[in-house]
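User: Hi! I'm working on a homework problem where we have to compare a predicted structure to a textbook description. Could you give me the structure for the chain below?
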Amino acid sequence: MRKLWLLPLVLALALSLSPAYAQAPDGEAYTVQAGDWLSKLAEKYYGDPLAYPAIVDATNAKAAEDDRFTAITNPDAIEAGQKIWIPTSTGTTAPPGSGGGRLSVDQLKNASYDGIYDQPVTLVDGYYEGEPFVEGGASRPTVTFVGDLVAYGDLNGDGVEDAAVLLAESSGGSGTFTYLAAVVNQDGQPVNAGTVLLGDRTQIKSLAIQNGQIVMEIVTQGPDDPMCCPTLKVRKTYSLQDGQLVEVGSEELGQVSLQDLMGTSWTVEQLDFDQPVQGDEPITAEFADGQVAGSGGCNRYNAPVSSDDAQSLTIGPAISTLMACPEPLMTQEMQYLTALQNTMQWSYYIGKLALTYQQDDGSIGTLMLLPSPSSQ
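Assistant: Happy to help. Predicted structure tokens:
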């Protein structure tokens, strides 16, 4: 069985918080390719999938000036061949002369972090590997930068955007320990200002910087939970105090349940790890009123959902329309619907939704879904 080392989705910025451009900002034209979506482009250009509203506003401003561009009226639906405008910045970077703009993901992936081992570790392209615990042995300490979820905001009151990142530490055992690290922006360079342990196999639902503090929603182990299966929802708040990252608030939000999925909308990113969705049409899943419904990339479908406990999940059978689809979309849609109906468990996975399913050969697969902009 595949090891699911972290089972942790993100509460994104609303469109109303995006910058409104009177005229198109500096940027570059981009022609949408098959498989593109706005949050994916935002992560590519800014290192932050939640920055997609800046692309929406910049494209709409550009469309008002240049008829070669098409205004984006629905952030969920951009089409291959559509010309959009990618602004140089998201409009949230620090002002000129205030110490530089937003730290890039590449900078964060190659920074040094302390608070994990006795000595700081320096990542190289998001990874650190120490010496084996036993000479010639396979077990060794590792630290991995979790790039799926990075939050930006001012943490130290200097008017410059800092960052909050997640790191996963493993030493070869069954546990994977998640750390939260605060990184301040000092003249455009990343400096780790503090690191704290979140827990073993903690699920991360959201990560944000609000009013100078790091705010997270997680699912962690309750008093009677085994390490494998956390069920307690908690909102935690951290801030920098006297040069250290400290927890300043913790609020229990009850036990995670199927009800947490109701009213949420998602777009499928991968049919399994390292198997991205193909084609122009997104595969979607919308949970409401005890059902999941959406598009399989060609046909519409709906199916009942139920749960026996915290994050168990039973789906199906699915009912869908019967429109013929070209290959490979037809095969992909069937693979998705089969996986959906074989789902056994749901969980948060670093700002995403993971649906774990059993494959025909008895092995485990995982559907990975991103939050749809309309649900954020």
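For your comparison, note the following. Residues 20-87 form a domain with the Membrane-bound Lytic Murein Transglycosylase D; Chain A fold (CATH 3.10.350.10). The helical segments are 38-46, 52-65, 105-109, 329-341. Good luck with the assignment!
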